[in-house]
Specification:
With about 325 residues, the protein is mostly helical. The chain has 14 helices and 2 strands, in the order ααααααββαααααααα. It is found in: Cell membrane.
């Protein structure tokens, strides 16, 4: 019997990335794979992939985490202020970052899963609270001008133009895939997100696992915030802003449904690559900010439509056959 390979959202987004890279090389940059281009692109892809994988945990439960920018910004402020710009203060700063991220994740998880509140409203409110805390913690003008040198050195390190941040994000995507498919706790988390009632009937404490998704996500945002702070050197109060909508789009381009269900970290990685390369090409072409937004919106709507068609191809096929009949 002939084995038929059915296209998936992962195939679609990967094909779109390949096509975009070819267009970038031949018609836009002429040097996409040069060390200069790679050293600019790969850390951006890496940070977006990290936070998008975190966002994927929340989206798998049917929610969206709008506290991401505030969490990243507060972490960046802690790394800058608590360390005092010295390597000796970095371990304490990182430990404080972990505590803050766990707290943010717990608050989100308890309010959404414990009290049954809407995830958008809760995470938006928590995000504003966290951003306010970051502003108070950092102050209007920070007396510290640079993050610790060891963090900056690691965040800007790379091999052949490939950023260490991208390599770390790929490793995270692989490990997350293994966790969700091969580890008992990960499979229970997937079950709690895809079929909460059925999971509860089998003895899985679905609300607990769904709450844990918010904590995991906040910790991953924290990692992204630390690396973003190391890359910029002097993180400001807008550190996390660029990653809110792009993280959601990367996950959805990877085939996830905002209503909840299975997510693919590797497909999310491809979605992050697509978004970052598209923005890079538009900047190289010299488009204004408004024109870039229009072009990005049009391309992303088309991409999301294609992913949706692939996901629901069976239903669409039946609907077309009924219309034809």
């Amino acid at each position: 019997m002939r084995h038929v390979i059915r296209p998936t959202a992962t195939h679609v987004v990967t094909g779109a990335v390949v096509l975009l890279v070819v267009v970038s090389q031949l018609a836009v940059t002429g040097g996409f794979f040069s060390q200069g281009s790679l050293s600019t692109l790969t850390p951006l892809i890496g940070i977006l992939t990290l936070v998008a994988v975190g966002q994927a945990f929340v989206i798998s439960t049917g929610g969206v985490d709008l506290s991401l920018p505030g969490t990243m910004t507060w972490v960046g402020a802690i790394v800058l202020e608590h360390s005092g710009g010295a390597d000796e203060g970095l371990p304490g700063a990182l430990l404080l970052c972990v505590g803050v991220c766990v707290l943010v994740g717990l608050v989100n998880g308890v309010l959404v899963e414990g009290l049954g509140l809407n995830s958008l409203v809760v995470t938006l409110a928590v995000g504003q609270l966290v951003l306010g805390c970051a502003q108070l913690y950092r102050g209007a003008v920070s007396p510290v001008q640079k993050v610790p040198g060891s963090l900056a050195a690691w965040a800007t390190a790379g091999v052949g133009g490939i950023s260490a941040i991208l390599l770390a994000s790929v490793a995270l995507a692989v490990l997350t895939t293994f966790f969700l498919h091969r580890v008992v706790a990960g499979r229970r988390l997937v079950a709690a997100g895809t079929a909460e009632r059925a999971a509860s009937l089998t003895g899985i404490r679905a609300p607990l696992y769904r709450s844990a998704a918010y904590v995991i996500a906040a910790l991953v945002y924290g990692v992204g915030g630390v690396l973003a702070a190391g890359r910029t050197g002097t993180p400001d109060l807008t550190l996390g802003e660029p990653y809110l909508l792009t993280s959601v789009v990367a996950v959805v381009l990877g085939g996830a449904a905002l209503a909840g269900g299975r997510v693919s970290p590797m497909a999310t990685l491809m979605g992050a690559v697509f978004i970052t390369v598209l923005d890079f090409d538009l900047r190289v072409l010299g488009l204004s900010a408004g024109a870039r937004l229009i072009a990005q919106g049009a391309v992303l709507v088309l991409g999301l439509a294609m992913v949706n068609v692939v996901r629901h191809r069976a239903e669409l096929g039946r609907a077309l056959r009924r219309l034809a009949a």
